[in-house]
Every structure is written in structure tokens, then in C-alpha cells.
Amino acid sequence: MAGKKKPKGPAPSVLDWSEVEHVLKLMAEHGLEEFEYSDGPLHVKVKKASANRAATPGEAAEAAASPSAEAAGEDLHVVKSPIVGTFYAAPNPDAPAFVRVGDRVSAGQALCIIEAMKLMNEIESDVAGEIARIFVENGQPVEYGEPLFAIRPAGPVRAA
Description:
The protein contains two helices and ten strands, in the order αββαββββββββ.
């Protein structure tokens, strides 16, 4: 009786997206530009889109801490990116921006779009108030947890 041969070695690894998200978060926290991992047939390489010049880890940590610290001093609510992707201020290139500094917003109102893996994700405000600051520019890549907007709440700030 001819049986099927079992492949030698470990079974092929399956990509676990929660692990990928964890790696992306660690990259952002430590200012890493690139991460590569191989395990048998599985090969993952993540490379952050870079600006004209790469920031040193100290500069990256300082820049990441700055918007949140500034917002905390003014008692502002910070809306952070829930995903890694590309920030778009408007629904399409010919349309006006969703919001501008000084605009009043309501909870649930669209603030921007973040494109991730060819999917357009609307990011909504979770508080009502006034846009005090926009931390990123149109077309700029954003990291998980990166501050996008500072909102001066209409009422007391809710705990996150």
C-alpha cells in the first residue's frame, strides 16, 4: 500500500497578525526602521517609510513623546492611529480636508482616512470638541499609536 510521504521538518508557519501588530508596536516604541524575521518557509520583512533623513533613536523617542506631552499640558484629548498606514486628510485628492484646526467636531465624526493594505479606514473622533492641532501631514506614513489630532473637549476629558 503506497502511502503519502510526510514532509520532513516542521510544519509551515502561519502568520499570526496579533504577533505582527506587536512587532510593529515595538518598532514604533524603540524607533526601529526595519525588522526582518525568518522561520522555515515564513519570511517577514517590515521596513518603515523614511523621510529625507533618518532620525536617531533619541530623536524618534523625543518626537513621539512631544505631541502627547504638549496635549496633556493643555488638557487636550489625543486621537491616536489605531493602525499602521498612510494618513489622508480628505476622502479624495480633490475634496476638502475632513477637518481643520479650529473646526468643531462631534463624537463619531470622521477626522481622516488611514490607508492600510489597500483598505481605506475612516478614523472617527471619540469626543466632541474643537480641533486644536493636527500632528501629521497629508500622505505621511503613520505608526500604530502615533498621535494624529489633539481635540479640546467640549466637556470633561474621558479616561482612555
